[in-house]
Design a protein that fits this description.
Blueprint lengths: L3 E2 L2 H11 L4 H4 L1 H7 L8 H11 L26 E2 L3
Length: about 80
């Protein structure tokens, strides 16, 4: 399926919209010292984008079963997601 680029604006919007404003998603300087070296996307944001990657325009029907997602690598602004 087609890729979905993740932007800092996506992450900021999701943090504001959901209220999930923990440091790993909102404060690059603080998070760099304690986690993975910068802002990372929310897990639920990635799951939502994965669902969107399965739909092409014009819209088509289909199903996506993610089971229990396991996040192996942090997703950072500028990364592109694909679903296979």
């Amino acid at each position: 399926m087609f890729p979905r680029n993740v932007t800092r604006e996506d992450i900021d919007h999701f943090a504001e919209f959901t209220g999930d404003t923990v440091l790993r998603h909102t404060d690059e300087a603080a998070d760099a010292a304690i986690r993975v070296g910068g802002i990372v996307a929310h897990g639920y944001l990635i799951v939502s984008f994965a669902a969107g990657c399965c739909v092409r325009k014009p819209a088509r029907s289909g199903q996506l079963w993610l089971g229990e997602p396991e996040f192996l690598t942090p997703v950072k602004p500028g990364d592109a997601l694909t679903v296979t």
